[in-house]
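Q: Start with the shorter request: fold the first protein.
A: Done. Sequence, then structure:
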Amino acid sequence: MNLLALITYLLVMSITPGPNNLVLASSGVNYGFGRTLPAMLGMAVGLSLQVGILTVFLGGLLALIASVQLYLAVLGCVYLLWLSWGMARAGAAGEQGATGKPMGFAGGLLFNWLNPKVWLMGFNIAVVFLPRHMAPLQAGLLFAATTFVIGLPCIALWAGTGVAIKRWLASPRRLRAFNCGMAAMLAATAFWLLVQMLPSHLLSGVGGLI
């Protein structure tokens, strides 16, 4: 397993603008960091559990259909490239309406399970990064812990600096530079993973052509 690539992927996906981060940024502005903390912890725990469960489930399934794992992984990398393209073309973050009270821990825990983007992220992690020689349960625990450790500081950054981030993203030039930079990192990760997953005889053939 390429742990560095996994960390890079989680870092990019966790720190870029999205529903979770925008909700936390708005809550940080309206209610402060302390009152936003329960929702933030709920989102971090919920995402970690989701990634772990999907890894265990898909890991057991892929053990029965190992012959198609490479093709599924390639599709996952294609999705990363498509996501990076959409990220580079993303527009300004929308305004979040104020609510009567901040989201609690349970709300944060369930928030990711209702977010289609997070579902795709979890499937992608399980399919692309699952080690071939690691038990699905062990990989699920590892992925869940890694997701929590990487994701929590990223979403805490949005919650703690909501006002500054929203003002910074309001500048079209800075927003485009930020999105393009994150998109380039995500695309580079996809190509890196694709090269490492290709069979050695294919890589040697490409090297011979070059």
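Q: Next, the second protein, separately.
A: Sequence, then structure:
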Amino acid sequence: MLLKSIRFVASMAIVGAVLAADWELHVNATTAALSLLLAILAISAQLGLAEALVTSVAAMLGFNLLFLPPVGRLTIQDPQNWVALAAFLVTAVTASQLSAHARRRAAEAEARRLEIERLYALVQSMMLTGSARKTIREFVNRVVQVFGCTAAAFYYRPTDEFVRSGPESKVVSDHELLAESEVEEVSVDPIRGIAIAPVRLGGRTLGSMALIGSPPSPQMAHAIANLIAITIEKARALEDASHAEAARQSELLKSALLDSLAHDIKTPLTSIKAAVTSLLGSAAGADQELLTIINEEADRLNRLAAEVVEMARIEAGKLHLDKQPVPVAELISGALSELPLKGRPLKLRVPSDLPPAEADRDFAGQVVKQFVENALKYSPEGSPLEISAELKGGKIVIGVGDRGPGIEENERPRIFDKFYRGRRHRFDTKGTGMGLAIAKGIVEAHGERIWVESEPGQGAVFYFSLAASTGGRES
């Protein structure tokens, strides 16, 4: 109140000083009116509208008394008084409004500048982040510190978690945060001093952020929400990359360990095999039977070690192919010659005019061999096997079919996974569960695809494709 009174006294003093100066200098009425207009303009720009209105009336009265005839007498009825008063009032109102608008814009600009500086400080403080959960908690606390809010709260939708900076944040309920995450605009409640903004990234909803106590403008609240969305996504991406790298290193270590272990096993197996082969020639009776068992089990361990080495090479990306045109009939017959078919009926469907396949003979033959071994293992003794090859869209497709129990639909996507074995046969059938995984690795190293088609109770057909040699003939 005292300050207001001082401002009124000061404005009246300014008008009095201008009138006194004009009277002492004996200026004419026009000059006096202009000088008073300038004084009112200055008062309205610097002090405000109320002071300017009061001084406008005082200036009109002083102008009438000192510069309008009859000098020394107030003649309010004179139209010149009303013109002067109107001019003074219009000047006062217009100048004060322009000044107030300019001051308001300057204050807004200053507020935006401070908000931008705070946002920049927030960005700098969040450059190094840990996990997504840790990042959210740090962000909520930093927002309170940087923007001078009383409290802040965040709802993280992917994990359905609520993170709060302290008890003061309880003024915003969980329900409000949940509801705001579903809308698109920032919600501001000036009475409660709360701003709640949805947090989204690329059309995906991450949650919502509430700022309590002197919250920033809606635009800045939206910018903060965008910043936390980007920060969370960055932290999550770094976390995923870290996990992926750890998994890759783990796979490399496991492959190296398996490779080393397999080689260490093969060395004593070679000695055992040589000794058993030598003893078999001279043993008789029960000893002969025991040595035969040892010999067969040594062969099985040898195959297991070979599979482990092969799997380790595939996972380490060290499978080096020597691709050449290979006649498909030779590829299949070479694989069959290494297998004991035990009198199984075998049907071959390989067209004579089929072009050669562009493949590594040994590795491609290993895939055929694995398919046939798998069919022998999982189909009844004496049931027929069928091997086919045909040209489809520039690819040679080789298939091996059996009359076994088939593969359940939910197991087909995992049938080529390492160590995976069907639910019904995992305990009653010998094997390591690596054969089909090795076949898949070999086929994918060729840049081709491998798949299975099956109906429960109707058997299964395993297929893989190879590129047809460009030098060969096509049917």
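Q: Describe the second briefly.
A: The two ends are 104 Å apart (CA to CA). The chain has four domains: 2-117, 129-241, 243-315, 324-468.
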